[in-house]
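User: Sequence in, structure out. Go.
Assistant: Echoing your sequence, followed by the structure tokens.
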Amino acid sequence: MSIKKNVMVAAAAICLLTPSATVSAQAITDTMNPKVQAPKAVDIDLNASNFPDSNFRSQLVSYDIDGNGKLSAAEVANITSLSLTNVLDITGVKLLTSLSDLTVAASPINKIDVRGMTSLTNINYYGNPNLKTLDLRDCPNLVYANHSVNNETVLISAGMTKYVACSAIPEHTGHIIIDLRGIATINPDGSKSIDLKTVISPTLIAVFEEHSQPGYDPATNILTIPKEDNSSDYTAGIDGNNADTSWTFYTDYDHPTLVGGDITAKYVDEAGNEISADVVKSGNVGDSYTTDQKSINGYTFKEVQGNVSGTFTDQAQTVTYVYTKNPVKAGNVTAKYVDEAGNEISADVVKSGNVGDAYTTDKKTISGYTFKEVQGNSVGNFTDKAQIVTYVYSKEQLVPVKPSQQTPSTIDNHPIKPNDKQVQKSIQPTKTALPKTAKNQKNSSLMMTSLILAGATLIVVAIKKRLRN
């Protein structure tokens, strides 16, 4: 009762106060019933912690009107359109809560993540050769994304029915990924069904229907995914190179890494030398891939190293196709053997083989000659040209033999030793006198008579010649 009495007294007292005192009474009432105050907006520092990319930070400086190195709430509210170039990372863009139009161009960036930016209505991305992924999920007001060039992966949320992708060419969609988890209906047979009108815009449904899609009923817009599958791939749209793009509808999308490592198909000879340009394929983790064996002129396929087909992982993979070079007849290698004047002193040796094969030539031992030098490559590889290797020799000089150095005469091929006097004596030829006979004696007498007459005649001739003189 005392409390009630005190309140009534206080109320009566308030009624007797002047008007100015009435305001004070209102203040008292507010104090008794305090209102929740909105948190004070915090300025955003233009530092590396909030905006790691220095080029991104530098392009935000112009919005720092007071130049204090921070973006105030009022300054952030003024950033409704932003064009970024030469950036590698756009971390921090989500702090710009009034941004509706974003352009990222001519940059080495590989991923654009604007997930959850409810203010965003338009995004432009072009001229980014390394760009693989755009995460546009939970952007309910996003309408345009201009536009896929190299089949970039574009993640959108089911229910983004305003989103039409490219404003000029609806087919430029990129590789769309949509997660249907929690909104697909599970049928009695285990399959999952979804009404695409609740998932994507009428514009994207029209692009989807340009192909005959398995499990899709265009009359009802119902898409059914088989029970054994957690996802289904469909061909829909094109990229900037007019290559078909694919859309994937997941019923349980939970990939820690969206972009898979590249698959590189190499084409080499047996020594590992490149004989044809690499073929690089890109995709997302879990996507399937296949590589192809090439027909390469002058080579025969031998083997493949790695998985010809498989699925993308978060690691880069290499598939190597190895080829054997087809034999090509080479020019002969001729080894010549000449003296210093270039005269042939031994027959040529000619070797043949295929281009690239190894060859070796040999130095000969030639009687009467001494090897001097080789001209050309004694070892090497056959080419398509003839090759000559010349071995040059010097003529050996003959040394005269002195008499004392002559070889002793031999009899019956047995050499006589100079100090073997007894042997020499035993082998001296013996003069054997012919036996005297009557006939031999007569002949001797006739010879003696003839000699005497001849001598007498010469004497007579000499005397007569002297007398004449």
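User: And one key feature?
Assistant: The chain is about 20% helix and 30% strand.
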